[in-house]
Amino acid sequence: MQAHPSCPGERIAALFATMPTPTRVQTARTAGREFAAQSLTDDDLELTRAVIEHCIHDIDAAVRQAIAEAVQECEFLSHDLALKLALDVEEVALPIVSSSPVLSDEDLFRVLETATNGKQMAIAARPHLGLLSTGWLAEHGCYSALKICLGNETAIIGKAAYQHLMARFGDVEPIQKLLVERPYLPTEVVSQLFDFISEEYKQILIARNPVAENTSVYKILTAREKLLAKTLDRRMTDYEQKKKCLALDREGRLTSTLMLRLLIMGNHSFFAAALGHASGISKKRVVSLTSGRGYLGLQRLYERAALPPYHYTAFRITLEEHRKALHYHPRADQENFRQRILDRIALTYGWDADMTQEELMEKLLPKRLH
């Protein structure tokens, strides 16, 4: 008599070996959804995880695709599983490379190195795409993926990437249009574009990238916000914070740059109150969603608050640095710590390091003030 398999993996393998493909697909889909819903007890969770791990090795792509679609937004999916799915064939990988919060910029770069055009396009559309990925797309990506990347206002594109873009497709009219409509173009790129774009696009470029004549206005706005942040950086009750947020909102001064400034300063309490007011969520819930390991909660809160998409990366960087400080250097010199945050934000956005906070905040102000 044949012995029954003893461990869960062996039992699952034996069960799946005789199961027809449509049933395996449905089983994979159900397991993935239950796992992502976080509704399982410890034993059931362990069994479901074993089913998922078995399914991502299934010979039939439809089974692997069912898993990918079910867990594409799961924050607690293991990194190894997410990366394996992302490196799979296109129909399996697309849900993961499009949406998975588990994949880092480094992971996406690795996927791009062997990516089909479809994968490139899916990655190019991801919110808040990082410098490594946009750099690869600019230098090697297909034309369609580049158009999507340029149209993705939340994507962070560095100076070197813009150089590759202009070298490859600078003379192509649709690319020129997308370039001049990008937010926060580096000054060098603006100057280079002027050499070969039409008069119509030059006017758009000037309108979206105001220069010397508006400098004093930006400096005044930055100085006012600095003073406001200083007055807010004090001990307040939740009620006082809520009342202040309401007043600032009515005056049009509860801006994303003010919130970012307070967060950089380390005033997490008022930042949470302000983001809660802007998103319509309680401060307690904001603290819960922004203090965990993942960032999907922050991203959804940010989008709900309708804050400028291009500022999200600066918020995420600041939170990351504060979390690191909490674990690794809680007594770090505050001035050096703050400068590290400023430098990382500046470099990520393609600007020079060693900026003062006022210089950085001035650059992050909206390009159109009226």
Extract low-pLDDT stretches. Answer: 1-5, 211-215
Distance between the termini: 82 Å
**SSE string, helices as H and strands as E:** HHHHHHHHHHHHHHHHHHHHHHH
Q: Helix tally?
A: 23
How much β-strand is present in the residues?
under 5%
Task: Describe the SSE topology.
Blueprint: H1 8-17, H2 21-37, H3 42-55, H4 61-71, H5 79-86, H6 90-99, H7 105-112, H8 117-124, H9 131-140, H10 143-151, H11 159-169, H12 173-180, H13 187-193, H14 199-208, H15 215-232, H16 238-250, H17 256-265, H18 268-279, H19 283-290, H20 296-304, H21 312-328, H22 334-348, H23 357-364
Write a brief caption for the model:
With 370 residues, this protein is mainly alpha-helical.
How would you describe what is shown here?
- It contains 23 helices and no strands.
- It has helices at residues 8-17, 21-37, 42-55, 61-71, 79-86, 90-99, 105-112, 117-124, 131-140, 143-151, 159-169, 173-180, 187-193, 199-208, 215-232, 238-250, 256-265, 268-279, 283-290, 296-304, 312-328, 334-348, 357-364.
- Helix 15 crosses helix 17 and helix 16 (238-250) crosses helix 18.
- The radius of gyration is 24 Å and the shape is globular.
Q: What tags apply to this protein structure?
A:
370 residues, mainly alpha, 23 helices, disordered N terminus
